[in-house]
Amino acid sequence: MRIFTVPPDVPFLDALARAILAGGFPQPDRPPPEPAELAQWRLFLPTRRAKAALADSLFRQSGGARLLPRISILGALDEDEIDREVDTPDIPPAIGEFERRFILARLVESWARARPETSLARHGAGSAQALSLAASLAQLIDSFDIENIPLAEIAELFRGEMADHQRDALDFLDHVRTGYPKLLGSRGRIGPHQRRSLLIDREAERLGRGGRFPMIAAGSTGSVPATARMMAAIAKLDSGAVVLPGLDQDLDDDAWAALSPQDAQYGL
Question: Is the pLDDT of residue 124 over 60?
Answer without folding.
Answer: no
